[in-house]
Amino acid sequence: MEAIKDLGIYFDPKLKFDSHITNIANRSNKILGFIRRNCADFDDSLALKSIYCSLVRSICEYGSIWSPYQSGHKQIIEKIQQKFIRFLSFKCSIIREPHSSYTPLLTILNLETLEQRRLRLDLYFSYKLFSENIDCPEFLSRFSFHTPIRNSWSKNTFYLNTEVTNYASNTPHHRIMKTINKLSIDLFISPNFNSFKNYCNSLLVN
Question: Which residues partner with 9 through β-bridges?
Answer without folding.
Answer: 6
